[in-house]
Amino acid sequence: MPVIAITGGIGSGKSTVRRIFEDLGAFGVDADELARQVVNPGSEGARLLRETFGSAFFDSDGRLDRRRMAAKVFGDSKARHKIETILHPLIRAAERKLLEGLRIEQPEAVVAVEIPLLAEGGCSKEYDGVVLVTAPGEIRISRLVESGKYSSDEAVSRMASQAVDRDRADVATWVVDNGGELDRTAEQVRAIYTAITGA
Prior knowledge:
199 residues; Rossmann fold; 55% helix; alpha/beta
């Protein structure tokens, strides 16, 4: 069961590439979704975050206020290190459990795991290959602003806080240029999927 990682900077189009892999027959895994699951009310992740950062980051139902937490740790390297130390092992454990089940249920499947901070986390060697998704900075900023989640300044700051593509390229097996038309992106992904499956 080949397991590949999809990584890239914020706004590069990692989710788009993952969905194309899924359309081709791969089983897609979104690490951000796993990150949400490991902080669900009553979870170990929620308990540890509450102990570390306080109850002000949780609502009355015990749900983590992700935007407030992101605002807290962004630009604060010590806080970011704390949250990464707590969450990364839990996310990796959830991913391993999911993959173990897939190896039993779908042993022939290609699995495409979308991981935003692969280069930063240093776990690229755990995958059978790494797909780096790239796009020019101005396009990434435009996408982030159009999503309604970020102002232009916030988009630039978020991009600056992550690894640069040069560092990500060091761990990449394949590179997908997602700065143009979707058809061109899909063509590149199909070529990678064919290389993996031999079909």
